[in-house]
Amino acid sequence: MSPIDRHQHRSMRSSITGPALANPNSRLAFFDRVARATVDYLQSAFEDELRDVRIEFCSVPTNFKPDQGPALYRIDREDKSILLYRVPIQRAKGLHIDDELHRRMYIEHVVFRAVAEYLNRDPWELLPGEFDHF
Fold first, then answer.
1. How many other CB atoms are there within 10 angstroms of residue 19's CB atom?
2. CA–CA distance from 37 to each of 21, 44, 90, 107, 133 (Å)?
3. Three-class SS of residue 127?
4. Is residue 132 part of a domain?
5. pLDDT for residue 72
6. Percent of the chain's residues with pLDDT above 90
């Protein structure tokens, strides 16, 4: 029998959401939110150039070559696709400060780099006018 509170109501046995829902603060959810928002921004800013390009996410590369270092993304111009590898991006070393902001900026950086390479442009060209004051 469930305990009754002081207002003569039965208390809830468990949370309404239950344990089956994914953690919204997980590394996977964080990566997906940041990468998808960056992709959406670039697709709207370069609508014509990226109209038919598929930008997808995958956990790890299937053809890893240790002598070349970790692959962060793969570009296939014939197939019109960009594939971003979540695990190597999230485990990349070299962040001078390992916090949420810098992890977010690194994910955005890799997405910009992949799209810039696909478009044969410098990553700075994807944000025209944003860095003129430097």
1. 6
2. 22, 11, 16, 11, 25
3. coil
4. no
5. 92
6. 51
Range of the domain at 62: 27-126
- At 66, which CATH number? 3.30.2010.20
Tokens of 47: 């609508």
Residue 98 CA, distance from chain mean position: 16
Q: What is the pLDDT of residues 9-20, one digit of tens each?
A: 655 555 566 666
Listed in sequence order, the residues at least 6 apart from 118 whose beta carbon sits closer than 8 Å to its beta carbon are: 53, 75, 77, 82
Domain membership flag for residue 3: no
Specify the long-range contacts of residues 98-103, CB closer than 8 Å, at least 24 apart. Answer: 100/30, 103/30
SS3 63: coil
Residue 18 domain flag: no
| Helix, strand, or coil (residue 110) | helix
This prediction has a pTM of 0.78
